[in-house]
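Board notes (copied after class):
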Amino acid sequence: MRLARTALGALALAAAALAAPPAPAQAPPSSAAPPNPDELLGHITVVAGATRPLPKIGVLPSLVSDPEDVTIHSVVRRDLELCGEFEVLPDSAAPDGLYLSDSPVDVKAWSAKGVEAVVSVSGKKVAADKVELVGQAFLVNRGQAPVFDKKFIVPLRDVRFESHRVADQLIGALTGQNGGFASHMTFASGSGSLRRVFTIDADGHDARAVSPPDQTAIAPAFGKNEQLHYAASVKGDEYKVFTPAGGPLPLPVKGSVYGIAFSKDRAQVALSIGVGSTIKLFSGPDLQSIKPASEVGMALHPVFTPTGKLAFSGEGRYGQRIYVGDKAISPDGLFASAPTFCNHPDGVKAVYAVGVGKNTDLVASGETGGGLVRLTQNQGRNGYPACSPDGRLVAFFSTRTSGEGPGLYVMRVDGQRPKRISNLLGDSLRWDPLPPGKAVEAKN
């Protein structure tokens, strides 16, 4: 087939990684029957149903109505609930008391509620454009001495972002590793030619379109200085690279761009570009210096692993497979797409989508394959996973009709505790840290 050049044709190719496998470069021998995907996955039981007990923690309620205090309380509680490391007591279960900004923490009373830790936060204006954010964490078996006690002076306009940073440090004080909520996601959403790039906070707040409506946009990714890049077609032209500030950006290779990825340190960029009748992978230190990076055809959804290796979904004998470098790590016969790599405390986890009948499930393995684990099952189409900056969570889109319904979810990398953060659906999801903030730690 000839590679589609129109907007609708390009979108069909970009979506092919979750819909149906492209034709392989060479048909398999007639005597070879392709493996049955249902049989390949049939013996792998989904792990999401086996939830383990989590430590209970309490968050001090607040009777203060100042918007800064309301913001930090709502952000920190939400992040603690989403992080999947704790069972957070509802405010209604808190011990009786007067919860003002300077109220002391009665660790003994909280201990009687069965919690293992207590978190206290507050926010108040200290100048016209400055806010003081305070975070404390107490372990009930250590009494009244906090294991975390910090105060930050932050710009008024950044209270929500900096509240996420406080939450991340509180998670770190209680688990040994900071959380990943001082971050943002980007994705493409829409159908046909009406597709735009969106950004959204890691907790589902402030979803907004950032590409203009006259572009058909796909494949967003955060690049150097966290500047957003994406591919877009204007009036049915080829897909070219844009940023919200403008474009198209010049490339040394001609052809429609179907995928963009940047390494964690932003020192490398990779592009999936239509070349002749297939899609090839290119990479380099910047957009103007890209060179061929793989001979595998139909190379889509490029991504860099935490160790700096280039991975993607590419053509296999019977359909798309996940490659790290030029080595396939997903089983042949499973139509695999949209890989992401989580730098989990227990080791790097590869998470990707596989087609199962009319549905799509998420599976996980090691960075080099093997030990395949099924994360979803019988819950509609689940795809386009993205790992949190701390490596402990994976976000994904799901069309499930049970539970909280379709939308954007986050869950633990082991498949447990999925929680919906938005009712939006999309594709090409990315999850990256925010740029450094302007908070200044103050002495207590």
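Comment from the instructor: Confidence is low (pLDDT under 50) at residues 1-31. The domain at 183-433 is CATH 2.120.10.30 (Neuraminidase).
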